[in-house]
Amino acid sequence: MYLLSAGGLTVGDSILQLIVILVVFVIPVTIIAGLFIFMKKRNERLKRVEEKLDDLLERKK
Question: Which of 3, 17, 25, 59 shows its CA 20 to 30 Å from the CA of 32?
Answer without folding.
Answer: 17
